Amino acid sequence: MEIVIIGNGPGGVELAKELSGEHEVLIFEREEVPFYSKPMLSHYIAGLIEKEKLFIYPLDWYERKGINLKLGEEAKLIDRVRKVLVTDKGEYPYDILVIATGARAREPTVDGKEHLLTLRSIEDAEGIKALLEEHGEAVIIGGGFIGLELAGNLAKAGYGVKLIHRRDTFLGLDEELSSLIREKLEESGVEFHLGAELLKADENGLLTTRGYIEGKVKICAIGITPNVEIARRSGIHTGRGILIDDHFRTSAKDVYAIGDCAEYSGIICGTAKAAAGHAKVLANLLRGKEDRYPFELRSSVFKFGDLPIAIIGKTRGEGEWLDEHTKAFFQDGKLVGAVVIGDIRKAFSIEKELKKELYGA
Ligand SMILES: Cc1cc2nc3c(=O)[nH]c(=O)nc-3n(C[C@H](O)[C@H](O)[C@H](O)COP(=O)(O)OP(=O)(O)OC[C@H]3O[C@@H](n4cnc5c(N)ncnc54)[C@H](O)[C@@H]3O)c2cc1C
After folding, report:
1. Ligand 1 within 6 A of CB of 106
2. How far apart are CA 114 and CA 349, in angstroms?
3. CATH classification of 2-104+224-287, choosing from 3.10.20.600, 3.40.30.10, 3.50.50.60, 3.40.50.1370?
4. Which part of the chain is the FAD/NAD(P)-binding domain (predicted)?
5. Reduced to 3 states, what is the DSSP secondary structure of residue 304?
6. Contact at 8 Å (CB) between 260 and 275?
7. Could you read off the pLDDT of 39-78 as tens digits, one per residue?
8. How close is the Cα of 211 to the center of ligand 1, in Å?
C-alpha cells in the first residue's frame, strides 16, 4: 500500500517508523530540516545543548528505513475523489493518507503583538536564541508547559527570567502542586507575576493587570492552534482540530488524522507523547489489529529546568500523597489520577494501573 503522511513531527515520523517495513511510506514536510525534538528546543535556546542534539533522526536514518521524505514540500489539497495529494510541487496518489500537520503557537491578540515572539519551530528557536544572547533576559507570557519548560531552562542557564501567568495555578493542578512548581523554579531564579492578564505589549515591556513589566525579549506561550487548513480546504470536517473517531478516521474515506491537529470528542492532546502514541495505535489499526488510544486518560511528562513532572489522569479534587514524589487523586475510593514530581520513575506503573482501571487492559 502507498501510505502518504503530511507532517514530519513525532506523529508523522513514528507512524512512518512503524509502517516503513510493511508499506511504501512517503512523508511531506514543508520545513527544510529532518525530524527534530520540540521538547528540546528550550534547552537549545538556553545553550544547554548543541543544535545537532535536536536532530533525533538524521537524513540517512530515513534512507535506511526506506522512508521517502520530501522536505520543503507543502501539501495543499487532498483530492478525495481521485485519492491524490496535491502539493506545491506535484501530485501523489495514496491508498491511505494521514494528516499529521501538528499545530502552531497561538497568536496573541493584544495591541503591540508584533513585539511578541512565539516558539514552535527550530527557526523560532534560532530567532529567540539570538535575541536572548544580546539582551541576557526574557519575559515569558503563559504558565503552560512550554512557558514553564522555557523558564526553567533559561534560568538554569543563568538568564534573567520573568514569567507572567493569568492564573495562580499551573497546568490545571491544585494550589499545592502549583506552589511546588513555582518554588522550585523560583529557587533557580524565575520571577513570577501571577494573576496578571496581558493587556498590551511595546518594545520595552508589557502592560498587565498587575502593572508594567519591563523586558526587551518577550515570548508568548499561550497555547496552540491546530493546523487544520488543508483538511478544511479539502472538505474534511473540522472543529478546533480535524475531527476524528476513536480509530483516527476523518470524515473522508481512507484519510486519518493524528497528533496535535486531531480532535477526538473535543479533546486535542497537544503533546509529543500523545502524537507518538496515536501513531502506534493507528499503525496497529491499519494492520487490522485491535487497538485503542486512551484519549480520556491524560498522560504527559515534562521537565521544567531540573524538575521532571508526570501528570496522569484526573488531578482535581482532594489528593493524597503516597510518598514524597507522588500525589494521587481518588473518586469513590478509586484511583483516577496522579502527579509524580521530582523523581518520576513511578509514573509508568501508575499509568498502567489507570489504563487497566479505565479499559481493562
Ligand atoms: C517548545 C516546545 C516544547 C514542548 N515540550 C514538550 C514536552 O516536554 N513533552 C511533550 O510531550 N510535548 C512537548 N511539546 C509538544 C510537542 O512537541 C507536540 O505536541 C508535538 O510536536 C506534536 O506532534 P505532531 O506530529 O502532531 O505535530 P508537529 O510536531 O507540529 O509536526 C507537524 C509537522 O507538519 C508540518 N506541516 C504542517 N502543515 C503542513 C503541510 N500542509 N505540508 C507539509 N508539512 C506540513 C509542520 O511543518 C510540522 O513539522 C513541546 C512543544 C514545543 C513547541
Report:
1. no
2. 45
3. 3.50.50.60
4. 2-265
5. strand
6. yes
7. 999 999 999 999 999 999 999 999 999 999 999 999 999 9
8. 34
